[in-house]
Amino acid sequence: MECDKKKDGPILKTVIATVLLLLFFFMQGTVARVNNITGAESAFVRGSVIWCLVIITLTYFGIRYGSLSGVGFRKPKQGSARKLLYFIPLFVVALLHFVTGLSLSRGVGLIVAYLYFSLSVGVAEEIYFRGIICNMWLEKGLMKAMLVSSILFGLCHLLNLVTGSNLSKTIPQICFALAYGLVFAMIFYVGKSVIVCMLLHAFHDLCSFISGSGTKQLNIILGAVQFMILVAYFIYLYRNNGYSDLQEESYDKGITDD
């Protein structure tokens, strides 16, 4: 099964996918702000809006193509976890958030709400940036697929400016997301599955939400260490799993079955 790639190029489809994702992410923040919803209720409401996007997207692909494997819903390729170092660097990056401590004083309800919201974000963003966008661009080459999906993933964090974040905080977030996007693109490329990316993405976000708030200096140091780990991990993955395979692997266009 294939996307109608002859009719529409990857650029148009990439624009449509990105705009749709940004629209729902803008909506989830706007709904909470307009109704002055905070805390656990805010996380549940925002997560529910994003889950609506996930349901709509998966329903569309399921009905049109009869399968979700083309957007990465498949079992990871056998042996891929070993090639990816069992994702240990990503677990380290996520757990480093707890250097600033745990913020559990607001109760189990808020943690459950954060888990719900983290899963919605992880699933939605990985479907769009890896399962759809990265997957479409793989036929143009691994490098283009990684750069397009990762740069868009980073730039989409500019939406944080609309929610009240300042530019000095948003720029580091963009750089961090870019590095994370490159790593996730390699995980998707090697494992042929978006499911692992979703779970790792959600795990990182949850750790971030429930960690304590450290000093500005400590947060800068932690962010720098996390960023360097991500860059080093990406370089390792690309040199050992990407560069040598660039001219050897071929990918179906858009929606594919193993």
What does it look like?
There is one protein chain. The protein is mainly alpha-helical. It has one domain (10-245). It is 68% helix and 0% strand. It contains 9 helices and no strands. It has helices spanning 10-34, 39-65, 80-83, 88-95, 108-137, 142-155, 167-191, 195-210, 216-242. The longest helix has 30 residues, at 108-137. The relative contact order is 0.17. Mean pLDDT is 90; it is low at 1-7 and 247-258.
State the order of secondary-structure elements, H for helix, E for strand. Answer: HHHHHHHHH
Q: What structural class do helix, strand and pairing data support? A: mainly alpha
Task: Tell me the span between the first and last alpha carbons.
Answer: 10 Å
Residue share in helices?
55-70%
Number of domains: 1
Number of helices: 9
Largest beta-sheet details: none
Question: TL;DR of this structure?
Answer:
By secondary structure, the protein is mainly α.
Topology diagram in text:
Elements: H1 10-34, H2 39-65, H3 80-83, H4 88-95, H5 108-137, H6 142-155, H7 167-191, H8 195-210, H9 216-242
